[in-house]
Every structure is written in C-alpha cells, then in structure tokens.
Amino acid sequence: LPTYEASFSGNIKYKEGHGWVHDWLVNWKSKKDSIWWDVESSEKQMFTVKIAYTCPAKKVGSEISLRLNNQQIKAKIVNIFDPPMMHSPDRVVRKEVYEKDWESLVLGKIMIPKGKSKLVLTATKIANSEVGEVKSIILVK
C-alpha cells in the first residue's frame, strides 16, 4: 500500500509535494499525525504487515502502531537506514522526487476482515523530533 494512495493528517507531507507515484511521506513529528489506507477485502485474511521506511541515526527509537478496528500491532524503529537518493541519468533535473532504497520493518500480523476497513498508522513515541520517512505498508499473505 504505497503512501501516494494513503490519506494523512497533521504536519505530514509528500517529499516532493504532489504525491506522484515515486513520492513518500516526511515530516512525521507528532503523535497526533496519522497515515491511513482504506482497504477492501473479498474475504477475511491474515497478513504479516511490514513498513518500508528510512531513518537517520538521530531519529532512531520511534515507536509506531498500526490499528485496524480492535486490532493493534506495534514496532520500534531500531535500524539506522538513511541511504542517499539514487543517481539518475536525467539531463534536466526532474520535477518529481528521485528514488532511494528503503528498509523493511515487520510490524506483526493482522486479520483483515471481509469488506471495507481502514488501516491507521500512528506514532506512540517519537524519538528526537521526527519518526522518519515512510514509503509504504506491505501486506504479505
């Protein structure tokens, strides 16, 4: 579930600004901020949930939570992962954001019920003023 298909609140914004396909979310600085995805499933299904993120050393230690109805899974960001933007052969600097590599953190398992649901990602602890950058949520059946 890429962040360009998510909704979000608070100070969170897109890195480039428009939320085009390769964009991601930055500026996650408050426990009141949230990121959510509306999902629809044809059947009740169990998934392992991962988050694709980057986090420099000074921001490691934030704790995040994913909620779906009465279910909640949590994880702490403990790995430093702050790669540079990938080199691009563009002759003219592009308007879209340049891509970079992403770390994957397993949040846990969650049961997605049949029908429409909302997956809500929040921070329960913010280390050193900001959580990090978020590219997507990955659901593995």
What does this structure look like?
The chain has 141 residues and is mainly β. 0% of the residues lie in helices and 47% in strands. It is built from no helices and 10 strands. A 5-stranded antiparallel beta sheet has the order 1-4-9-6-7, with no helix packed on it.
Q: Biggest sheet, open or closed, and with what strands and sense?
A: 5 strands, antiparallel
Task: Please tally the helical runs, counting DSSP H or I stretches of 4 or more residues.
Answer: 0
Helix content: under 10%
Span between termini:
13 Å
Compose a concise summary of this entry.
With 141 residues, the protein is mainly beta. It has strands at residues 7-9, 13-14, 25-26, 34-41, 45-54, 63-68, 71-76, 103-112, 115-125, 133-140.
Outline the secondary-structure elements.
Elements: E1 7-9, E2 13-14, E3 25-26, E4 34-41, E5 45-54, E6 63-68, E7 71-76, E8 103-112, E9 115-125, E10 133-140
Any descriptors?
141 residues
